[in-house]
Amino acid sequence: MALASSAQTDSLVKGTSNGIPDRTDTIRSTQLHPLRLIIPATLITYGVIARQSGALRNLNNNLSDDLWTRHHHSKTPIDNYLQWSPAVALLGLQLAGIKGQDKFADLSIKYGMSFLLNTALTEMIKKSWKEWRPDSSNQYSFPSGHTSNAFMAAELLRLEYRNVSPWYGVAGYAAAAATGFLRMYNNKHWFSDVVAGAGVGILSTDIVWWTYPVLKRWAVGKGKDVSTMIVPYYTPYTGAGLCLAHHF
């Protein structure tokens, strides 16, 4: 009896014998743990403080000088494409039949919600703070939108496939970090812009990851599979609207 009880408990914690997480495991993995907010909050806080701190602004200037002024070079468009690589990886893994935690419909909605939230937060901060870019082209430097977009998808990739292999998340974060570096390499962002952008992207995905199960239960009812969901959104550039996601 003791062995049977132990096996049942282990199944509830780790999932079923065929490797598919059970309901208890899935609920636990989507619960809000405030300690997980420390990393994105720290990154965003660094970016905010760097706009006021003389020492951190000097760090921004020194890195910009090292990357651009002292070693002048031609700009590269790679960052415009690399920012989408974690998102492409999510789609590629699904098409290849490598399943993560969610069904394709749920994952698609999570990505759409994360993208909209990240875009809204990033553009709102850009318009509010009006930081000049290193190349003085405009005042939309803080935070880096390319970086926030890349880290948003990288965090979703990590969460979705963390029980399959941690290397998917590592690869996504490497691509996101490279995107941030190239934004500085192209003289489009300060170091603090990139750091804050990473925080905004990670935070956007984490918020959606933890709130989506609640929204899903509210929208379609407990215990039912979602096929269609309508989510409101707002961005400073496009205004308010509705995002429709349907699984055929």
TrEMBL record:
Gene3D superfamilies: Phosphatidic acid phosphatase type 2/haloperoxidase
Chain spans, region Disordered: 1-25
Pfam families: PAP2
InterPro entries: PAP2/HPO (IPR000326), PAP2/HPO_sf (IPR036938)
Phosphatidic acid phosphatase type 2/haloperoxidase domain ranges (all copies): 108-209
This protein's name: PAP2 superfamily protein
SMART domains to which the protein is assigned, alphabetical: acidPPc
Biased composition (Polar residues): 1-19
